[in-house]
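2 proteins. here.
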Amino acid sequence: MDGTAQLTARPVRAFAYDPSSAPGSPHARAVAVLDANWTGTSTVPSRGLYPHQWSWDSAFIAIGLRHVAPLRAQTELETLLAAQWGDGRVPHIVFHPSVPLDAYFPSPDFWRSTTAGRAAGAPRTVQTSGIVQPPVHALAAWLVHRADPALSRARGFLARVYPRLAAWHRYLLHRRDLGGGGLVSVVHPWEQGMDNSPCWDAPLSRVAPAPARSFRRADLAHGAPEDRPTDLDYGRYVRLAADYRDGEYRDGRGAFAVEDPSFNALLAVSEHALARIARELGATGTARHARAERLTAALVERLWDPAYGQFLCRDVLTGEAVPERGVTGLVPLLLPGLPREVARALVGTLTGPHFGLGTRTRLVPSHDLLGEAFDPHRYWRGPAWFNTGWLLERGLRLHGERARADALRTAVLELAAASDFAEYVDPYTGEACGATGFGWTAALTLDLLHDASGEDAALRG
């Protein structure tokens, strides 16, 4: 079977939960979404709103694909990593050449990767963006390998992706420690993945927006304006990206540099996964586990705020914490090396009045329910997302909160199916927002259906 085969051509493996593959079941519907979004070499997040390959989307999609089509899961990651730059960065978008330029903005002619990115080693044969997204890829690669080790070994999958993953982590740790404290900084809100979070409002306020006439927003053709970023915020995103491009994608302290909790937590988790990959390939993973532990310690030292009961973002340019409660500050619950009192406080914040999990909300809102900036529908300013639900379900389970993890798992599965696998939902009502038929929502549904125990998440060091 080659990488273009349909998911339905491969039998489903039975795990602790045996999902029904009958037509109309959540399992079958999730498989259909991934089939519809498959391009032959990768999976788009959605056909309309996001018609290219996105970096952390592909990692989450591979995690789900591994259960029903391990070869496709491997291909998903290989396609993304083939677009890696010479300096090690994995771009946040890999553009499909058959998609019209006006289908998505910023388009390839905005990023100009093959020219503006030449000094940083951008590939010559494929066009990409020049910024990055959270490093979930080593975790995804390890889970994909575990799904079918015989296939992985026969194809030399880990041996081929390991050097690229190592270079990717090296880029982040060496080029992006802009604060000098051992944590990675993001230089654009799109890099962190939670694009429109109120956590970025204060750092973004320094950025003069690009003139509205200088760009055309393609996203508004596919989503309600009240669900999307404002024109002012979008103008600032465009200005930051254009300045980074015009500087030939050189890393340094520009107008925006933020140490983000979830980005760094995911890097630490992926360092643990990369250690396991190294051991599978006959090397030692000791140094990588130690690096993950150092990242965890730096997170606690620099970004933990006991008064808030969660991690806060840190504005590198001012040296100050950003006093906003975003879901990003809860994601470090994934880390196996957290001090017990920190993990306990995170669970308290997650289930308390600011996020209301299990009382006011069934899924985790992306922002503080009590915050002035909270909006239950607007992109990352309040709606619940399925990837953060998946991450926090794993974190709860890792730290012994089995009942809460089970309840969150049930909510993710039920609301994903009920919302037609929406991009995100109203955290109170479950009403679908953004795109439907969304790739990572379908993929993570499959993962939760197959892996009810959470043991396969490989989050322990």
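next one coming up
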Amino acid sequence: MSHSVLLVEDDRAIATVVSEALGEEGYRVTACTSIARRDALLAEAEFDVMLTDIVLEDGDGLDDIAALRSKAPAMPVIVLSAQNTLDTAVRASDSEAFEYFPKPFDLDALLRAVAQAVARNEGGAAATGPSDEGLPFIGRSQAMQSVYRMITKVLRNDLTVLVTGESGTGKELVAEAIHQLGSRRTGPFVAINMAAIPHDLIESELFGHERGAFTGAVAQAIGKFEQANGGTLFLDEIGDMPAEAQTRLLRALQSGSIRRVGGRNEIAVDVRIVAATNRALAPMIAAGTFREDLFYRLNVVPIELPPLRDRREDIGALARHFLGQAESEGLSRHTITDAAVDALAALSWRGNVRELRNVVFRLALNARQDAIDRTLVEEVVAGENHSTEAETSDSFASALDAFLAEASPRPGTLYHAALARFEKPLIEHALRSMDGNQLRAAELLGINRNTLRKKLDELEIKPERFARRR
């Protein structure tokens, strides 16, 4: 017997395509365009699965899902929506939706989800979703939809999450969203940045210490694990963790307990771990600087944040949001023209969303009229080495071609010859971009701070030369 599907969709084109695709798979499809008609159909017959849009001609398709659950508790609900924000994804998750598909969606993926929903035939109780106000993510690009969907999948469990992405993409915001929107929201959220702590103090910071455990330990100290008990512990820049601390962290994750430095007693802790890194951990595992077993313990649910250059369609919304922030911080109110947004979208954004925010604040500060236009964008970013991605690529390729033509490296020496030529200017560029700050330069390069210091000595680079004069 074929399975029945109720499709609630007021976009006629989408309804037609989905209905035909489901029909070809053997499903009996009943389609409607309103909440009123949906309710009437559910009163007349039972359906194996329901697909529903959220914004319908007579209301919100998710508002009364709880009432529907009481009438058809076994009917899985798949949500389709063009309102592609994190709030929408969370609302779908909170309503116990079987799956959420932002528009435009992959039709084959939708068909697979329908088949899985029919096979599992699960349901559940509804809950009220949080307000859109204050949510940390902006962007409706397909790249961000994948992030939203992964976040919603971990809100009702305590699986360990590893967030990867370049500096400035918002990795800590992912951790905060998982905490604030998840089941541990009433517990503490504690963050620690491994790159910002001297290696010999990391274990004390994580696990605490007893009085007299080491020189300077004049009193007992509670570590981040105990501080985060009942909540979420965010381990930022996990790739900068020294080997000894990695071993103790692995043991804590395996046992669910910690021991303070200098202590003898095991202390049970109940924390949800979210870790993050802007470094590629696989090469570090191969080099023996990061434990493979710790990686697998952390990488239960991977979430990769896209760089801003891979979600350029979000730049306009982000820029307008940051203009609102600038106004709330005392700057004048401004709008931004489409041409100015296009100019911003053409830039390379090596610093990602964090860099965009800083540029927008400078635009608001320097604007001489209500609307920020393309001319002002070009003025503000001029001289900041804000080349477009294409220009950056062409410039580097030209420099490489010129070097190869001049040097004519022997076979088997090309890689090392090119590395020797470009490594020093690359490190100098990073230092210049970060005003001589070695920690931030190492973060930009994606290398360990100690590695950078070693390179500075080997290449005879004086970082103080790049400090901005005040």
